[in-house]
Amino acid sequence: MTRFTLPRIATFLVAAGVVAAATPAVIDFASVKAAAPAAAEATDQALMRRLTPQQYQRIVSDVFGVDMEIQGRFEPVPRVSGLLEVGTGKVGLTASGFQQYYTIAQGIAAKALDEQHRDFLVPCKPANAQAADAACAQQFLTKVGELLYRRPLAADEMKTQVDLASKGANDLKNFYTGLALSLESMMVQPQFIYRQETVVPSKSKPGQFELDAYSKATRLSFFFWDTSPDRILMDAAKDGSLDTPAGMKKQIERLAASPRLEDGMRSFFVDMLQFDQLDLVGKDATLYPNFTRNAVDDAREQTLRTITDHLINQNGDYRGLFTTRKTFLTPMLGSLYRVSVRSDVPNGYPQEWTAYQYPEGDPRAGILTHVSFVSLHSHPGRTSPTIRGKAMREVMLCQKVPDPPGNVNFTVVQDTTNPLYKTARERLNAHATEAMCTGCHKITDPIGLALENFDSDGAYRTSENGAPIDTNGTIDGKPFNNALTLGQVVSQLPAATSCLVNRLSAYGLGRDVPRSQGDWLKTIQASFATNGYRVTDLMKTLAASPEFYQSAAPK
Amino acid sequence: MSRILNRRTVLRGMLGGTAITVGLPLLDCFLDSNGEALADGAPLPKTFVSWFQGLGYAPTYWEPKKIGTGYDFGVQMKAFTPMRDKINIASGLKVFLDAHPAGAHSAGPQGCLQGGVSTPNLPSIDQIVADAIGTRTRYRSIEVSCDGSQDSFSSRSATAKNPGQPSPTALYADIFGASFQDPNAATFTPDPLAMARKSVLSAVADKREKLLTLVGAQDRARLDEYYTSLRAMENKLQIQLEKPAPMEACTVVKNFKKFEVQPGMLIDEAREANRLFAQLLAHAMSCGQTNVASVNFGGSSSNLRQAGSQQTFHMYTHEEMVDPVLGYQKQVAWFSNQVAESVLEFAQIFDSIKEGKGSLLDRSVIMYSTDSGYARSHSVENMPMVTFGSAGGALKTGVHVSAPGDGVTRFGLTVMQALGVPIGSWGVESNSTNKTITEFLA
Predict the structure, then answer these.
(1) Helix (H, G, I), strand (E, B) or coil at B228
(2) Model's pTM, two decimal places?
């Protein structure tokens, strides 16, 4: 029998004020494994996720006010299993990354405690502004610390922070400078820059483990709003109601009904659709003069507005994103789409977004035809049916397309000057005569070729090098003849909806769902269908599942 | 006399920010009469730059035909000719794939820079060098990227890849901004805020043991990296609190041109960024701010391109016909030449910083590597490996060595030993070697 002491858990639980010191110090792990194979499987899962730049910005705005801007660049996170959010659970922090966090924290702390902000952010006045005032420092650090650490600070943690503030104030003869030193140190500690989750023995399922109440609150808040828990959620964690089904349901309903759901939904789709990569997209200025930096930003915003309007405001069916004619445009995007977009703002004001509906017979419908998708998955100087098809498979359907093999002759693929092969389809057909290439290209190219009416900058075209573009094809045996019918076919593929469930659950958990929880995932997928593929309902279902908070014990 | 003056004792208790005046004639005191060494006889520190650009050259068109000295470069490396006698070049070296899948553009840089192709990432050569010669400078190492991305080929570990700084303007502000301390300034004023921050970070570091006990093995490794990075920041603050050793050749870059690379991978923009980064890094090294840097020019499966063109460098390598007259892909060779010119410019800027009778380049090694011996077929055989500079005389220069079939790690091992890294063997699996290229070593 394997017996395993858990002093670490007990220590931390006591420190976090979650349980009394009477927590059993010895747990029978054999019985744990027997009772909970799911928990036993992933005994070394990561419980720390590094904040994304977006999350960092939101938290800073929530805690210190909306005028707090991040000055600097964060160390990038790798995309793992299709999501940056999964990557945040695997990435470390380099020395230069640490310096970036530290520099940014210094800027925020200095601004939060400058003369313009201190009076409404610090709930007290020091007895002497040129010296330490531990009591006043503690008031401020308690208020801010709970929001930054997403849990109350343990007594020893608070003492450290107050001592740092006092020492800094006395050394530098300024209370606020000392407080800023303490604050910036909090903002560079792992408790802040990593979302650290704490595991406790499950109250409802003996032998299993789950997140503690504050970690549940954190997971919920980031899932729905992509930011730290607000005061109400923290209170629900503190008073224990979040550990009850009714209390949990109440918070989920509140979070889902909030306008801030749009923040969470946007963050998820930016991650799933890999729209962070749009920052690096540039097109050749000679070939695509309308594709400016501002146009790229507008293209991303167009798709996100379309998604959130359809899924939240209209409470629409997820599958409708592939076919909807409704969208939003700016005059700048109008120049790419070659439609007239009126903007009735007074002279001198920024242009505004206008609701727009592609008319019947228009070649565009659904987000696959948006400039964002087709331009992101193209070369700077021309389209790529293969890249688009691969993105379609991997991003929208969660299917893995193998990388190309080495030592392949690509010569004929895109020799655009070859008079024999005027269109991408002709060139790819010639290339696919290579036996080793055929397999993969069959699963990518037909989808990408259906989008060939959209140039690298997203502009509509009907011919390439004078030859008409043929957009006919099949996907999984189902025929389509252009981007419109491709969208219709894709929307009905089971993989399209199961992919969303897979991505959304991994996004919430910060890791791939283990195979042992496959049955749970199937249940969620069935529920998604029953609810008419409403994404907000899907989020609520996921968040209400005990499995969403189930965890292995720390190793 | 210590080469780097440690003023901790003096500074202790002076948190009020009292200026400390070092009332000594600096150069006479600290440097020898030639300006090539510090007055205690210790040579100026060696410096290292790892410069990377993928997609290589066409085999038989870059290698010198002659072995040893007095060689001529192949037609695709003709650009290097003006600096031949400061260059070492090896041909014939390969990356052993063992049983690992041949990642089309990853196996090359892994083999050349990390010593093996096993995944996940191993520490890269610049970081191994930094551990040996970068711990007493303000920046342990600096990573830059010329293509507008934050990509780099510098990694500390599997989960800690150093991001490349894509902005010359931001790097300038970081190095030569308010916290820059001129090593040749007559007075030295320790920043009381820096001292306070060092104290604060020490308090954070003290929590390490407790936090490490609270997490699983995966997170423990990541937390360890966090604390290593925190210690690097502490070290940086400590160095800021010490009077820097004078550096005769140090000149502060002034009126630096503001420049940001725009998305779109235009090679002209990458070249401009490369020139600006070279100036900044050369000045940073001549001023003792760092001894180690890593440069990503345009990535491995590089989409660098020319304005107005539908094609990119990478696309050409796969798709362009071999010119029947030239015997190689003409457009690809155009890009390769641009790359060679860029490495050369980088090295020339280092060579332009005069230090005594020599130059910054003379105490440096700039190691240029790529991802493939022949990008057209993703080959990792016959990898071009080139260095500029002599590592303070530890390397002979102007030498061509051909070692067909030997591991490319021999080259990196030689460079590391020349730089003074205490390392006897390098690499994993079949790429492991303890054989240096003795023809290069002085």
Answers:
(1) helix
(2) 0.85
